[in-house]
Amino acid sequence: MFETLSDRFETIFSRLRGRGKLSESDVDEVLREIRVALLEADVALPVVKTFVERVRTQAVGEEVSRALNPAQQVIKIVHGELIAILGGETFKLSYASKPPTVILMAGLQGSGKTTNTAKLAKWFKAQGRNPLMVGADLQRPAAVAQLQTLGAQIDVPVFSEPSDPVAVAAAGLEHAQRTGRDVLLVDTAGRLSIDSELMDEVRRISEVVSPDYTLLVIDAMTGQDAVATAEAFHATLELDGVVLTKLDGDARGGAALSVREVVGRPIAFASTGEKLEDFDLFHPDRLAGRILGMGDVLSLIEKAEQVYEAEEAEEAAARLMEGRFTLEDFLHQLQQIKKMGPLSGIMGMLPGVPKEVRNAEIDDRQIGKVEAMIRSMTPAERVEPGVIDGSRRARIAAGSGTTPNDISMLVKQFTEMQRMMKKMGGAGSKKALGKARKGKKRKGPGGGRVTVRGGPSAPMPDLAAELEAQMGRVGSQRSGGGKVPPADDLTLPGLP
Amino acid sequence: MEIVLVVLAVLVVLVAGVLLVRSVATRRAGTVELEPAEREVAPPDGGSAVVVEELAAEAVPATESVEVAEAPTRPRFRERLERARSRFGDAIGALRGSRIDESVWEELEYALLGADVGVDATEDLLASVRSTVAERRLTEGDELLDVLKEEMRVRLGGFDTSLHSGDTPPTVWLLVGVNGVGKTTTAGKLAHRAKIEGRTVMLAAGDTFRAAAAEQLGMWAERTGASMVRGADGGDPSAVVFDAIEAAAARGCDLVIADTAGRLHTKSNLMEELGKVRRVAERGAGTVTEVLLVLDATTGQNGLVQAQQFTDAVDLSGVVLTKLDGSAKGGIVLAIQTQLGIPVKLVGLGEGADDLVPFDADEFVEALFS
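Output (structure tokens, whole complex):
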């Protein structure tokens, strides 16, 4: 629904193309777009203001780089600045010398405290710890029952009693000490930051358990209110970090940036799904890309890894390059891709795909149609589609509930693709692969005939090079154990 | 045409996917962790495992903080919202008595954006206010304020905000939304309201996913004296809702309030599940007259996307804006009403059973400007 920052920039810079240098008025215009992008990502207004000013100072003072065009340069600055804020200080957890290490979870109603208490407990368990959860949410009906159910699922005991939250917390601490639990997680009731009575209650809970870490649980969908909430909780509890939840939706998560900037505490953990294992330490660079609406390559890789087997992928790649890729293989890949979720969703995550293609509404039922067509072919036809003549076409169409015209279109598309891939494979190296693909998109299926809403006017960027560059980032990040890649390594997607 | 698109899309994804996996695989030791991609769904025997629970309004546990008042006194927007005098209010206060200049417009923009109204809606709103101000040659801040209020009232008002009942009982109201917005609580509060109006209520515990969601709704049933139908954990929510409707019809209950599991609008399988819940509910004895999106007032710009996706899936009839008693203003409903035409019907102003009140555009606007 929202235009990505790169799309916006594309529009601005298409007018400036060839100048290669940013004037002050260009910078102003660009900064306005950044402001809007940040606001649409729910970054709080005061934070947007200071952020934009910081970018301005850098952008105006910056020497014009030869390697990057102006758009890339500005996005690089913005992206770098975002990472600097989000990940300037990563969350380091050290255990208390005298166990248990106490962690207090606080937040508004419905931000996900109970679920994330259990997720965190599971995380500690995976670190070889023995956590105990305390259900101090006596406010919401059945909150303790929820925690107990989750506790049973992850095999972590839950302590609670129907008294009052402060007493429960105190007794929970005692219970942990007595039973030799080395991590104590205290789930508290959701409360509004302006409810002084309840804020006082959570302060008293904090006093009796004296937590080593106080984590504020914040919903990634939170709007401008995130700042007020974080400030109020920070004033009452002195936060140590933030747990950002519901990141598996499509909210840009600008609230995280606001909170980080306003209370100066790191985003410690992020919850990225409904299952209890969908929880991990926070990756600042992913969120930076997300706030800017850039392709989320890392998430795509994760999705791909879920469905692709490494060897199988190698095999498929080899077949592709050698031109041995058949409709049978195509069918198989189609099924793999289907497992990754809606096609348009995956397209959205790819960097460097022009917005005309990205925004094209692809009905996933059409995949079923293509699948049906291939399934109605004989094995011989799948390997050698050239043999399909009029009568075969009619048979396949009847078998798949499509029209002969559909069949010829599919065959034509496929043959063209096969030819291109062969060419690429012949050219050999990966660089040539990139070039060949570029050529293919222009002449081939991506060219004149695919007129998606007026036709892709922007040339298809070099996807392969894009991915290669992104992979560089991923590699360095993974081997570096989640360290932030140096900003210079960054190639920014979506720009011509 | 469509086929060309599919082939193109599959190709792009395929090439990218292969490239990605290839480079990751070569960089890594070669261990690929496989995770199940779908949320696990329990065997589809939800229907048979449905238990009807008769719950009398008995002793409420001492730890419950929600009290059920006999005669509800409707909390006023303003007194609730006064606790959270906002940036909005402050900015507006500064406007009074001043003359209209550029800084005034900036103040206004700042205030609206700060209330989560959103960039587009704010620009749109201010553009019409600007033209009215120019047209009437207004110069005073107070006059400008009146124009803005009027403009907002026009945009928020004029919708049918009543909760409808069907011709053939039982009437079915379905509550949907993302996780943690307060669907279960809203179901409980709605049951309470309906009870006071003298209706017999059946609650359907359609959230079979979240741990103890049915228990939570059960406590509300107990408190309000409503009946409740629940299914097995992880069971088919459509079956639970259908059985609740059938049970309601059999016992002459005239209203079924169906809770559903929170789901992110981006999960297509879960949205389809929700579509099925609605379709199955329509097939039962009753009539589905309200499908309400429960929306947390703290939600930012994502709220508009949520409303769009949910209405695509289940055709929303209205919005319930919850947690409006906090410091959040819920300005995103302005965009939802004007862009999608889905009216706010109810607002949640607190944790008490009586704190769910009908939406009133005048009060909403007044509260923002007070």
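Chain B touches chain A through 91 residues (CB under 8 Å).
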